[in-house]
Amino acid sequence: MSGSTSRRHLVLVGLMGAGKTTVGERCARRLDRPFVDTDEIVVATSGQTVAELFATEGEAGFRARERAALVDACAAPEPLVVACGGGAVLDAENRATMRAAGVVVWLRASPGQLADRVGDGAGRPLLAGAPSVETLERLAALRAPAYEAAAHVVVDTDGLAPDAVAGRVLEELDRCAA
Ligand code: S3P
User: Fold this and answer.
1) Average pLDDT over residues 154-178
2) pLDDT (tens digit, 9 = 90+) per residue, 28-55?
3) How far away, in angstroms, is 140 Cα from ligand 1 center?
4) Residue 47, phi then psi, degrees to nearest 5
5) Given this model, what pLDDT does residue 123 score?
6) Enclosing domain of residue 149
């Protein structure tokens, strides 16, 4: 079975700025599948932005909503492209949910590239409006084991445009579904 006919979801994980949304939308277009983003589901169902949720419900409240969004997305009967918030992989249940439902691809990037891509960090409370290469280095080191545990495959994105990354992701999806 080729990747384009695989019935499994394509699940993208990686740090903030890894390109999960941009690349995910392109993959979805090329696969002719719906695209969903767990952050967007959380925002739509709560009526609050991610930053507001962190302020009103704390990170724990946000993570509970994120877990529910991931479960819902993974339960969809049609194959989707699912972009996960950068911290979703920290929860072992989430990792099991995504691995059981789809091919999980870790979009990996160096802290320097991530810092360039997140800009001023707006809307990302963990970057507190002041993202630095050091903050992203720390997060990358802390989280690498969780991304590794979650992912079936890794795609390195440094120096690649979103379309090129999407191409590599789809090649990996094909390989996994072969
Ligand atoms: C987070 C990443 C964000 C969002 C929230 C927490 C994280 O999503 O879920 O701000 O813990 O890495 P993106 O990775 O889409 O920016």
Assistant:
1) 94
2) 999 999 999 999 999 999 999 999 999 9
3) 13
4) 75, 15
5) 85
6) 3-177
Q: Is the CB of 176 under 6 A from ligand 1?
A: no
Query: What ranges in the chain are assigned the alpha helix state H?
Result: 20-31, 38-46, 50-74, 92-101, 111-118, 133-150, 162-177
CB of 124 sitting under 6 A from ligand 1: yes
pLDDT tens digits, 153-163: 999 999 999 99
Distance (Å) of CA 175 to CA 18, 68, 138: 22, 29, 32
Residue among 49, 108, 124, 143 to mutate when testing ligand 1 (max atoms within 8 A of CB)? 124
Task: Report how far residue 83's alpha carbon sits from residue 67's, in angstroms, rounded to the nearest whole number.
Answer: 13
| Number of folded domains that form the chain | 1
Q: Is the pTM of this model over 0.90?
A: yes
Domain CATH for 73: 3.40.50.300
Q: Is the CB of 86 under 6 A from ligand 1?
A: yes
